[in-house]
Design a protein that fits this description.
Elements (H helix, E strand, L loop, with lengths): L3 E3 L14 H21 L15 H6 L1 H4 L3 E14 L2 E8 L2 E8 H4 L1 H8 L6 E10 L5 E4 L2 E6 L15 H6 L1 H7 L1 H23 L3 E2 L5 E2 L11 E4 L4 E5 L4 H9 L4 E9 L11 E10 L3 H20 L3 E4 L2 E4 L5 E4 H9 L12 H8 L9 H13 L7 E4 L21 E6 L2 E8 L4 H16 L10 H9 L4 E7 H9 L22
Parallel strand pairs: 4-6, 8-12, 16-17
Antiparallel strand pairs: 1-2, 2-3, 2-5, 3-4, 5-6, 5-7, 9-11, 10-11, 12-13, 13-20, 14-15, 17-18, 18-19, 19-20
Helix pairs in contact: 7-8, 8-16, 9-15, 11-13, 14-15
């Protein structure tokens, strides 16, 4: 039987005696460092220099017959060895996937063959040789020459056990990406999603802009901000919680169609749907309204799914969802009534708010204001039922301080949220452009803050001054990019689509 080595099986000659995991790890590291020292003594640089790559794993796999006999140079990480007498098959992984290598002693010579056989799983190499297909039909590169580009000094975790540890996967994402092909695919999809969004909006006349991350006032949303301090100016600043108010200033300035893909930061809890830093798309279009934003949202997500996934049907949390427009629509108060049994008038008396949350079994961490209770009822009793895709329309003014009031019902605003598989993906308004109404809304938010709602919107006088110069009727839309990728790829948690999610520091054994 030949020598077989792969992730989690470093080879028969490397087996360690029974002992603690930490002891075995240190022994394997010591063995690899001994190889490192031997390479240097022989004048071989174990951390090589530039290597000219002419092809990749996917190209060799998909165009093998067309490229037969053609010499290519590929580079990547060795992830498996299968030695059979005087020949060896190796698996080389690059960002496009896996390609098989074939090394033979009669081609390389005894010394070079011995060198390639002494490499470890995880070593990064450059290989040159012709493309061919094996008798079993496997696209392969014959090794005519190879260069060690980086010696791997640590072994990988067990292939099927070490990286089932979710905590380890998030903390050491580099290992997760090396070992788990599905994880690499998710993040490549994320990159394609962002590229598609930019192309889609650019083609429709939007311009991409950048607005401040450090802000004097953290406005544009109801959330608790992170605070930092600028030493030279001796003043506190906030990491932005939203892109909204600065983008609207640009609409006032006449840019008319703007968008930003940027990070927001909110000092809030962490769960499968929330991370303290996250990526948002926000766009604003002058002379539009929330109906235009609904059409744009449907079209964007439908086209995105078809281009990236090849289908307009996706599976979200066990539900098959079709993204083809038009999407369903339901009024906010109709949704509240359907899924909680409460009516609009049940919320008129603030003295009854306590009995409402008690009846529904809801726990509140904020002050008992009408807006806070409405938001909680919506998130806990309604949203999980919105398989959709569906737009929830016309929210109460109490939880929408930046949206234009409905002409036929001033207690409601022109606002929608879009839900797919019970996940809120988008939030949009016909934007409030009346500076006097906006001032009153800000004052109401100040009163809510005085009652104990730390996430109530701040009063932003400079934004009011901007509105007083005149902002045209505007449609605005925000889409959570992390959640969008999560829905499209079918992963269960936001952490699965954020390369480095926020986590408590942890000291690893053996480090």
């Amino acid at each position: 039987m030949g020598d077989e080595r792969e992730v989690g099986n470093q080879g028969p000659e490397n087996l360690q005696p029974a002992g603690s995991q930490a002891e075995n790890l240190q022994a394997e590291i010591a063995r690899r460092r001994q190889k490192l020292a031997e390479l240097r003594l022989r004048g071989i640089d174990p951390f090589g220099r530039r290597f000219e790559v002419t092809s990749d794993a996917e190209t060799v796999r998909t165009r093998c017959d067309e490229m037969a006999g053609q010499e290519v140079s590929v580079a990547g990480r060795l992830m498996a060895f299968r030695a059979h007498g005087k020949a060896m098959f190796l698996d080389l992984h690059d960002r496009t996937g896996k390609v098989q290598l074939h090394a033979r002693i009669d081609v390389l010579g005894e010394e070079s063959y011995k060198e390639i056989a002494s490499l470890d799983v995880g070593d990064i190499v450059g290989v040159t040789g012709p493309v061919f297909r094996t008798k079993r039909g496997e696209p392969t590169v014959e090794v005519r020459g190879f260069t060690l580009l980086a010696k791997s000094l640590r072994p990988f975790p067990e292939k099927w056990h070490g990286l089932q540890d979710v905590d380890l996967r998030y903390r050491q994402r580099y290992l997760d990406l090396i070992v788990n092909e599905d994880v690499r695919r998710v993040f490549l999809t994320r990159s394609k999603v962002i590229s598609f969004i930019r192309r889609y909006l650019d083609e429709r006349g939007f311009i991409e802009v950048e607005t401040p991350v450090l802000q004097v006032l953290a406005g544009g949303a109801s959330a608790r901000p992170f605070i930092t301090h600028h030493n030279a100016l001796d003043m506190d600043l906030y990491l932005r919680i939203s892109l909204e108010l600065y983008l609207k200033r640009l609409i006032v300035g006449g840019l008319e169609k703007v968008y930003e893909l940027g990070r927001n930061f909110r000092n809030e809890g962490i769960d499968s749907m929330h991370n303290p830093e996250f990526t948002m798309l926000e766009l604003y279009q002058a002379y539009a309204d929330y109906d235009v934003m609904m059409e744009l949202t449907e079209d964007l997500l439908y086209r995105l799914s078809v281009e990236l996934l090849g289908t307009d049907e996706i599976e979200v949390r066990g539900h098959r969802v079709c993204l083809r427009p038009p999407w369903a629509r339901i009024k906010f108060w109709d949704a509240i009534s359907r899924y909680s049994g409460l009516s609009r008038h049940d919320f008129d008396d603030e003295a009854q708010l306590g009995s409402i949350i008690e009846r529904l079994g809801i726990k509140m961490t904020k002050a008992l204001t009408k807006g806070a209770v409405l938001d909680k009822v919506m998130s806990e009793k309604v949203e999980p039922n919105l398989v959709g895709p569906v737009f929830v329309l016309d929210y109460p003014v109490e939880i929408s301080p930046l949206a234009k009031r409905r002409d036929d019902d001033p207690g409601l605003v022109y606002r929608f949220e879009a839900f797919v598989g019970g996940v809120e993906l988008a939030n949009a308004f016909s934007e409030l452009n009346d500076p006097d109404d906006q001032r009153q809304r800000f004052l109401e938010q100040v009163r809510a803050r005085e009652k104990g709602d730390e996430e109530a919107h701040v009063f932003d006088e400079d934004f009011l001054i901007a509105l007083e110069y005149g902002m045209p009727p505007t449609g605005g839309l925000g889409i959570g990019v992390d959640r969008l990728v999560m829905v499209l790829t079918g992963v269960p948690s936001l952490r699965d689509v954020i390369l480095f999610p926020t986590m408590r520091p942890h000291r690893r054994a053996g480090s």
